[in-house]
Amino acid sequence: MLGSSGAVGQELLRLLEERSFPIRELRLLASQRSAGTSQVWKGSMCKVEEVSEASFQDVDIVLASAGGSVSRKWREVIHSAGALMIDNSSAFRMDVDVPLVVPEVNPQAAFKHQGLIANPNCTTILLSLVLGPLAKCVPIKRVIVSTYQSASGAGARAMEELKKHSQEVLNGALPKSEVLPYSLAFNLFLHNSPLQANGYCEEEMKMVNETRKIMDLPNLRFTATCVRVPILRAHSESVNIEFEKSFPVEEARQVLSNSPGLKLIENFETNRFPMPCDVNGRDQVAIGRIRQDISDKNSLELWLCGDQIRKGAALNAIQIAELLVPKL
User: Fold this and answer.
1) Which pLDDT tens digit goes with each residue over 215-262?
2) Alpha helices in 145-260 (DSSP H)
3) CB count in 10 Å sphere of residue 299
4) 146 and 241, same structural domain?
């Protein structure tokens, strides 16, 4: 594992144990700065080694969650060693020869790898679980998404900053941000990724381009607005989907209720729908408030919540590896 000290790395370790992933030997690799520290694995302490070219010899799978620059640096070394790299960064997602995989949606793509598979962006993974099964029933013409993204998407330090700032605000102080550009405590702001020439931020364009690739719909009309909100680790999304023809609500609800990775939480009488607290630490993405768009007879709207660290990152990577273990 390349990068085990961060929030995603820690979740990867927990999931490898929880899911009894077949491991003969686990190597925890990191930069010189983190080398020599220890991480918990199956109740024992495992020493973190400094990554080097020799680190990947006799390795079958490398789960990389140390950032794009690190993944780019070691890609060829990993490939030369004959290992499969499952990369959680955005470094290779849009490369033509690199599969971008959500196992419940496009598992077949994983088997076309050439030594590297990219793990999609967290918001894209959660959305794809919904779009995939619906598109098999009725072709999709357009998607409009607004996201409500947790601090965890910016890493463990951002989560700690949110906790610290929340207490400071309650104590009457004015918090000073060091990780995020603005304090998230009792606040929200448009996603802080770099703005592009078209006025969309990088995060929004990740959703657009990655969803098209996963769904194999290069011309899908898609627009997104991404927002940071004061939630620790679960992302939420408001989704409007236009189909080529009318898609009855009850039929769509039935399809999604029976789709892998999804859980329906929906009670219109009590106004009870998915919340971040429903999905913290859980594998399934919660969906609900599935309804007819009153402005367009061919469109449906829904709401979803999913754990950003778990299904939005670590779990999806491990599920990709599970697809391929029998082939290694």
Assistant:
1) 999 999 999 999 999 999 999 999 999 999 999 999 999 999 999 999
2) 156-170, 202-215, 249-257
3) 19
4) yes
158 falls within a domain: yes
**Catalytic residue check, 46:** no
CATH code, 208: 3.30.360.10
Residue 49 domain boundaries: 7-120+314-327
Closest CA to 232 of 115, 317, 151, 142: 151
Catalytic site includes residue 165: no
Instruction: Catalogue the long-range contacts made by 322-326 (C-beta closer than 8 Å, 24 or more residues apart).
Output: 322/19, 322/21, 322/103, 323/101, 323/103, 323/107, 323/110, 323/111, 324/61, 324/84, 324/110, 324/111, 324/113, 325/21, 325/22
Rounded to whole angstroms, the Cα distance separating 88 from 264 reads: 27
Do 283 and 310 meet the contact criterion of CB atoms below 8 Å apart? yes
Tell me the two tokens of residue 309.
Answer: 């660290």
Domain count, the chain: 2
Catalytic one of 113, 122, 165, 305: 122
Same domain, 161 and 256: yes
Residue of 191, 226, 235, 305 marked catalytic = 235
| Residue 79, in any domain of the structure | yes
Q: In this structure, what CATH number is given to the domain that contains residue 62? A: 3.40.50.720
DSSP string, 80-120: HTTPEEEE-SSSSTT-TTS-B--TTT-GGGGGG-SSEEEPP
Q: Are residues 144 and 105 in the same domain?
A: no
Q: Are residues 79 and 217 in the same domain?
A: no
- Rounded to whole angstroms, the Cα distance separating 129 from 104 reads 7
Q: What was the pLDDT predicted at 68? A: 93
Residues 202 and 249 in one domain: yes
List the structure tokens of 20: 């009894």
pLDDT in tens, 294-304: 999 999 999 99
- Considering the domain architecture, whether residues 82 and 169 belong to the same structural domain is answered as no
Closest CA to 107 of 323, 288, 266: 323
Q: Which sign does the torsion angle of CA 181, 183, 184, 187 carry?
A: negative
